[in-house]
Write a structure and sequence with these properties.
Chain A is of the alpha+beta class. Chain A has 4 helices and 4 strands. In chain A, a hairpin with a 5-residue loop joins β3 and β4. The chains are: A alpha+beta, B alpha+beta.
Chain lengths: 113, 917
């Protein structure tokens, strides 16, 4: 099965959700989680995760700090902020609304006279 | 929106963060990524791949490192700033590549911006700037309107007792008063004439001006006893200039009018006074007046108005509400005044006028200046003219930009084709225009400083405008930058919009430049506007030049004033009394008359054309006054031979003689005779002779003065005001107090050669007396006409500059049109068109543009010229001759600028023209 490209703008949402669901993570962990959840449907250039993390930091939705990874290595950990949680709720709602609309529009085909 | 702002702020934080912290951040991300790749690789190795394959797979999964790096860079940097820098470098390259265009554009802008900055600098310093005092917006000036039928010295003046009354009002927090005068001051044995401000003791407290050294005056110390506080506060500027800012100056004794006084302090730096056009050297307490024999002013007389009164509004009051609150106080003062016995002489009509006077309260946040009243209208007119110049300059540069944009169509088309957005291109073109404007500002500021220096040099020397300076300060810089931004957008936007609206394919395919429609039309429109604006400026220049000419050549009643030398001496002070001063004057006249090269000499007490005036109501015996009849006449006291010296013709009767001196009434030798001018004689006696009739002061029947002569009208204060002035002259008499004298000397030839001889006469008779204001009456008249000279010369310069710019614009348009029509003209000539008809073809285009421009200019000039009517003299704002002259100048200039390209067109070789391209 061919993999789909990550939709523009959705990566930020996925990163935010991952941090919300799993708590503080480093970049590698986030990439693994998205890979695992997407069940190999999405083609993710893992480098883009870091650009996404930068963007989210600029907005103040996540914070960063140094910690120790599972295999005892020093790694940078990212955590969602309160504001980030609010933003996630907002964007999730928005996403669901839009995908519902798109879903309905795409179903219209069958009703052709 | 908030998200975008946040991103931007994060970007700026990074931009202004320390280099190390930025580098550290980048290193951390690199570390993270290396770690990430490492873990991916390890995972693939664990799945059984070879190390090399695992590495490649990890790389694949991570994506292109370079692209990610770029993405992150973009996320973190402020793109517009980087692009701006790129645009600036690109613009600078473009401007360097075309030095002629750049030079012409910058020079044109510099002229426009320089003219505006220069006029604005003067306007700002004289009119707009607030006084450097505490809370200037609460400062007001208070003065009574209307005639007090008493003594007045200047405009907006109050009496000292009334100024003290004002202090009782709850509407005013504190009230101060001041008087400007010039006094002989002796410092270390050298006597000079200095600008001294007499101030009430609370002057500095009211204004909130602190001492820079020592103390300033206070009510407690300096406002209590007449002549009780012989103390001086120096102005900061004078302290620096005359005493080199000596900190040990406190306690130094100097002589003011030969009276010893002590320097007690220096006022704060930057504070010049309440009159923006004056810069007093020092201040002394008003109560020291008795030791300074300032003529005719008094500290006790309510009927003598001579002080300017400034006050600070009490909390809760505005100028309007304070004015209402002060009226009852003012009317009490009027009641007191009306007890004066002179009042019985007033007609019911005049009594009514007197009692309906009101008190004015006006904001004085920027001080008060008689000079400003005189100049401000002129400066506003000049500011408008400078604005027009800037418009002409802008349209000229816009026109240049359009022609350049046309020449750059290829380059722009290439950039568009390579994917530049139109917005990007417009931005980079605008950056270019703003760079031109920026260079224009720098050059303009230099020009403006030179221009102001020239202007200030034209102003009266010594006495006035000493505080004005040419160096631009922050306000001026800000003004020029705003002007430059506005001009840059004004002349840059249209060409940028037009130049980027291109059909890329056809422009790239076709080698020929599309000279086309729209941009040519815009340029023609701009040139027409330039012609119209130049016409306006030329008409203005013509009107003002004519005004100056009229005022300068008005029949002043005197002949050949270039050969008339004048100078003042001021023997008031301790050493002279009335009689000894009179004897001194007689000696001076005798000595001067014996000097070779002198044909006549005389003196008068009131100097001419120096702004002084001594006037009062004069009636004649037997004349019944009508209600509202103006009987004001200017007074003067003169020596014999005054009229002969001045060259004023005697119409009837006789001049005063030596025998008339001191042959007077009573002990005070008040004269019994007078001479009047033609206006006076005609007002009271019509065609009949005035000789033998008696004149008297409006309020007193005695003394009476028999009219012994009638002289031609002549000037007194300024040629603009003197046409209807009545004058009455009295012979010199032995007054109890010293009268000031201005000597007039008629030279037989070169008058300047007499200056040293005249100085040595005074030096011989009294070496301690300074000789002041020695110059010819012609020079004095020039100084009186300074406003007119300022407007006339500036407007002529403005008019000519505008015309030159319009000519340049016209030439540009026509030359460009000839160049793009070369082929067409070649065809016409090949088909047999003669040179003359080609010449006409091109000239006609010029003519049409100029005609339209003038057709627009004439009605606009007609409407606008009314606003300058108050500045004109002897010429109507709708003067036909001036309009025609402006027309002729424009037509001639247009003909020349059209003829050059026309001739080039007519000498086109048809063969070469057809082969062209």
């Amino acid at each position: 099965m061919p993999k789909s490209d990550v939709l523009q703008g959705t990566l930020d949402l996925m990163v935010l959700k991952t941090l919300h669901a799993l708590g503080p993570q480093h970049g590698f962990g986030i990439a693994r989680r998205i890979e695992q959840v997407s069940e190999d449907v999405l083609k993710l250039n893992e480098g883009t995760v870091y650009t996404s993390l930068l963007r989210l930091q600029q907005q103040g939705w996540i914070s960063a700090g140094w910690g120790t990874s599972d295999n005892n290595r020093k790694a940078k950990f990212y955590a969602i902020t309160n504001e980030g949680s609010k933003q996630l709720a907002l964007e999730t709602e928005e996403w669901e609304r839009i995908s519902a609309v798109i879903g309905r529009v795409l179903k219209l085909e069958g009703e052709k006279p | 929106m908030i998200a975008r702002l946040r991103t931007l702020s994060a970007k700026f934080r990074r931009l202004f963060a320390k280099q190390e912290s930025r580098e550290l951040q980048d290193l951390e991300i690199d570390d993270e990524i290396r770690e990430h790749l490492q873990q991916l690789t390890e995972r693939y190795i664990a799945q059984g791949m070879s190390r090399q394959d695992a590495l490649a797979a990890a790389r694949r999964q991570f994506g292109n490192l370079g692209v990610h790096h770029e993405d992150r860079h973009e996320t973190q940097t402020v793109n517009s700033l980087e692009n701006l820098w790129r645009d600036i470098r690109y613009g600078a390259r473009q401007l360097r590549r075309n030095p002629l265009f750049t030079t012409v554009a910058i020079a044109t802008l510099a002229i426009g911006i320089g003219a505006n900055t220069a006029v604005f600098t003067l306007l700002d310093q004289l009119v707009l700037r607030l006084l450097p005092v505490r809370d200037p917006s609460r400062l007001v000036m208070v003065w009574p309107e209307g005639s007090n039928f008493g003594n007045n010295n200047g405009n907006r003046v109050v009496s000292y007792p009334f100024c003290q009354d004002l202090r009782k009002s709850p509407a005013l927090e504190s009230v101060t008063c001041q008087y400007n005068t010039w006094e002989s001051v002796t410092i270390d044995g050298n006597t000079e004439s200095l600008n001294v401000e007499l101030v009430s003791g609370n002057y500095f407290e009211t204004l909130g001006v602190k001492p820079a050294l020592g103390r300033v005056f206070s009510s407690a110390a300096d406002d209590q006893v007449y002549s009780g506080s012989p103390s001086i506060v120096l102005s900061h500027r004078f302290w620096e200039e005359r005493f080199a800012a000596d900190p040990k100056i406190i306690g130094k004794k100097i002589l003011v009018n030969n009276y010893p006084m002590e320097i007690v302090g220096v006022s704060a730096a930057g504070f010049a006074g309440v009159d923006p056009a004056q810069s007093p050297h020092m201040r002394i307490p008003l109560l020291m007046l008795p030791v300074l024999p300032v003529d005719g002013e008094s500290l006790i007389d309510r009927r003598t108005q001579w002080l300017h009164s400034f006050a600070r509004l009490a909390p809760g009051f505005t100028a309007t509400s304070a004015s209402a609150a002060l009226q009852p106080l003012f009317h009490q003062s009027l009641e007191v005044e009306s007890a004066d016995p002179q009042f019985s002489k007033l007609s019911p009509y005049d009594r009514n006028l007197f009692f309906t006077r009101t008190l004015s309260v006006e904001t004085a946040a920027n001080g008060y200046s008689g000079m400003r009243d005189m100049f401000s209208t002129a400066l506003v007119v000049l500011m408008c003219m400078a604005g027009l110049i800037l418009l002409v300059a802008c349209s000229n540069v816009a026109s240049l930009m359009i022609s350049r944009a046309t020449a750059r169509q290829k380059e722009i088309a290439v950039r568009l084709a390579m994917g530049a957005s139109r917005r990007t291109l417009i931005r980079s073109l605008l950056v270019e225009s703003l760079m031109l404007a920026g260079a224009g500002v720098v050059l303009g500021l230099i020009l403006s400083e030179a221009a102001i220096r020239t202007l200030l040099a034209m102003m009266p020397s010594g006495t006035t405008l000493v505080m004005l300076h040419a160096q631009p300060d922050l306000r001026i810089l800000l003004f020029s930058v705003v002007v430059a931004l506005a001009t840059g957008l004004l002349f840059g936007l249209v060409p940028a919009l037009q130049g980027t609206r291109l059909d890329v394919t056809s422009t790239l395919k076709d080698a020929a430049i599309i000279s086309g429609g729209r941009s040519a039309r815009t340029r023609k429109f701009l040139v027409t506007a330039q012609v119209a604006l130049s016409f306006l400026l030329l008409v203005g220049a013509g009107l003002f030049a004519k005004t100056l000419y009229n005022l300068k050549n008005i029949n002043m009643g005197m002949n050949n004033i270039a050969n008339l030398v004048m100078f003042n001496v001021d023997p008031r002070g301790a050493r002279y009394t009335g009689p000894t001063a009179q004897a001194f004057y007689k000696n001076v006249l005798n000595e001067i008359r014996a000097t070779p090269g002198v044909t006549a000499a005389a003196f008068s007490v009131v100097p001419l054309l120096q702004g002084y005036e001594w006037s009062g109501g004069i009636n004649v015996v037997g004349h019944q006054m009508k209600d509202g009849e103006d009987v004001d006449a200017s007074n003067n006291i003169i020596s014999p031979e005054y009229f002969k010296t001045m060259g004023i013709p005697l119409i009837a009767g006789r001049d005063f003689t030596d025998a008339d001196r001191n042959k007077g009434q009573d002990m005070a030798h008040i004269p019994t005779i007078c001479i009047v001018n033609r206006n006076f004689a005609e007002h009271f006696f019509g065609k009949e002779s005035a000789i033998g009739h008696y004149a008297h002061n409006l309020f007193r029947d005695e003394p009476k003065f028999q009219i012994v002569g009638v002289v031609e009208n002549s000037t007194y204060r300024s040629p603009r005001e003197d046409a209807d002035r009545r004058e009455i002259y009295f012979p010199e008499y032995e007054a109890p107090m010293v009268l000031q004298a201005t000597f007039y000397v008629r030279a037989s030839s070169e008058s300047k050669a007499l200056f040293p001889a005249l100085r040595s006469v005074i030096a011989k008779l009294d070496p301690s007396l300074p000789v002041m204001n020695m110059k010819t009456v012609d020079t004095q008249l020039d100084e009186v006409l300074n406003t007119e000279r300022l407007i006339a010369s500036l407007s002529i310069v403005f008019g000519l500059v505008a015309t030159a710019l319009a000519a340049l614009g016209l030439y540009g348009v026509v030359a460009f049109s000839v160049a793009s029509r070369t082929k067409e003209i070649g065809v016409r000539m090949a088909l047999g068109a003669r040179k003359a008809s080609v010449l006409w073809l091109v000239l006609r285009e010029t003519m049409i543009l100029v005609t339209i421009g003038i057709a627009i200019g004439i009605p606009v000039a007609y409407v606008l010229s009314r606003y300058v009517e108050s500045q004109l003299y002897g010429v109507k704002p709708t003067d036909i001759a001036t309009g025609l002259a402006a027309l002729a100048v424009l037509a001639a200039v247009a003909a020349i600028s059209g003829f050059i390209p026309a001739r080039r067109a007519s000498s086109i070789d048809p063969l070469r023209a057809l082969r062209h391209e």
